[in-house]
Amino acid sequence: MKRCLIVDDSRVVRKVARRILEDLKFDTMEAADGQQALEQCRADMPEAILLDWNMPVMNGIDFLRALRREPGGDRPTVVFCTTENDMSHIAEAIRSGANEYIMKPFDSEIIESKFAEVGLV
Amino acid sequence: MNSSDFDFVSGLLKRRAGIQLTTDKTYLLESRLAPLARKEGLASIEDLLQVVRSRRDERLISQIVDVMTTNETFFFRDKTPFELMKEVALPDLSSQRKPRIRIWCAACSTGQEPYSLAMMLEDNPVLTKGAAVEIVATDISPRVLEKAKSGLYSQFEVQRGLPIQMMMKHFKQKDDLWQISDKIRSMVTFREHNLMDQPTMFGKFDVVFIRNVLIYFDQPTKSQVLDRVSSVMNPGGYMLLGAAETVIGISKKFEAVKERRGLYQAVGGANKSGIRAA
């Protein structure tokens, strides 16, 4: 079973995402900010990461750049999932190593479609 | 809805759009006609149908057909047909050194299918080996065609089936919406067409996408529609159907391409692909 780390400071968003991803047969883990996510990745690198942008402590883009510099940090497929919905943010995310990009609000169809796009389902 | 009203609307839909509606779809009829009745300032579906019966109001009839047609679509829907284009149809057609490859997207709804093809061809010029490509996309509904022509899609729509890199390349943001580029829009010509009518005015085609449409028709109507499609196809041209659709037992004018589910070739042409089923 593939593991997906859900990184979002909203408990509600994490819960909704977890239910969708569990339906897609993912084993899920959660982190409330980029720093927590980085520590979890150092301990146990997941196959997939669903990543919010705006979070306290360490935001999503800083986490992503740090992750890609970690040993094995190039392996996880990272899908941004954020309210930042303009082209400059999308381009910055892709340049920083994101594999796909979801603009909130999302639903199960969008998650499934985007995860399929990058070969996760 | 009483049986007389159901028979009246289902007869209307059958005559006008070939749509076969069975009584188990009464809920669908009610759920789509009720908002139309409200929009027209009428108290109920019964009143709406009464107006149609008494006045034969063409505008209203056209709106009933419009709300009853299913417009579900998204970019690169089902993926496989686009792979079949890349792997089988286009290599075969381009090997014939045609100066022009003509594609018809029948029942194109809001345009995601023809635009998906246009993006795929624009990003992979090697597929057509220099041949010009013309995409004609048709639908019965003027309303969905207007949206298709505008090339404007919601955030939800651009996230269904469209890889982010492709969205970045071919779309620009316009307020809350996303608009496909002028270049891609210019590759597709949208025209109004009812599949119950002959499509001969559009010329001959090398590829026809007609997916998830036949499922709404009864057997004789499916056969007639396939006859019309075949009448505008160049010999050996390719047709793509939806995953739940087939020509078997319906038309002898197409043959299934072996081990390529959903792909058919018009009978009578040179079989360049060499993989036609017996």
UniProtKB/TrEMBL annotation, chain A:
Keywords: Phosphoprotein
Residues covered by the Response regulatory domain: 3-119
Pfam families per the UniProt record, alphabetical: Response_reg
Keyword Phosphoprotein part of the UniProt annotation: yes
Tagged with keyword Phosphoprotein: yes
Organism superkingdom: Bacteria
PROSITE patterns: RESPONSE_REGULATORY
Sequence positions bearing 4-aspartylphosphate: 52
Name of the protein: PleD family two-component system response regulator
Gene source species: Hirschia litorea
